[in-house]
Amino acid sequence: MIHFNNVTIVGVGLIGGSLAKVLKTKNLTDRITGAGRSRETLDLALKLGVIDRMGEGLSHAVVDADLVVLASPVGTFEAAAREIGLLMKKGAILTDVGSVKGALVKRIESLLPAGVHYVPGHPIAGKEKHGVAEASEQLFRGAKCILTPTTKTDPQALETVKALWSAAGANVVLMDADAHDHIFAAVSHLPHAAAFAMVNTVAEFSSGPENYISFSGAGFRDFTRIAASSPEMWRDVCLLNGNNIIEMIEQYQLALNSIKKAIERQDADKLDALFHAASGLRRGLG
User: Fold this and answer.
1) At which of 156, 175, 194 does a domain end?
2) What whole-number distance in Å separates Cα of residue 34 and Cα of residue 49?
3) Average pLDDT of span 77-87
């Protein structure tokens, strides 16, 4: 069984807070230090018992930490690694929960001194609501957690992080960082962009005497549920994985145009074929 004397979580929101709860529930650490930009969030995390203490800034928070978890918006990772890399003790592990890997992994690796081990991670879990008040030790149960080790990744550190996520109830999958970004641009980043766009589209029609959104039913609410996710987080994801997301948006536009053209031509057979293909695939997901 793994055990850490000191764990530091940078960004004690839904994901970071839920991992902290796992560490406490499973008795995997003696102490958890919370760090981040929002004193209000850290105060709440302390009050809820999610963390044991607050760091006085990142530099102070990582001193003597065996494990540091970057769970703030992914756009902050590189600056955080630059600030804390040289302050982390030899043998410590740095990991993250970001949904973008690729070139970012290589940049973070380059900022760390020898003896500090980086294991990039991405738990596929979340809710439309965010914040430490929504944190739960059950969040990762049955979910996938992607780890994207490189040729520089320390094997023992990788095994330790795998064991951590297994203890959280996640199914750990190893994957190449670039392949990760292409896959998740399709199955996660594009759907979020589409949900944000859908809400903004309907909002354009709500400026007149009728508030269109107030008439939305289950279909609209289900489709756009993820548009309630953290805007800051998804802004960073779009900027860091831009090329892959643009590729997926262009492919999505082609799919929408196929439906649009079939409607223009009143082509019932084409619509039937497109909808049946999608319906069958979606039912297969369960």
Assistant:
1) 175
2) 11
3) 94
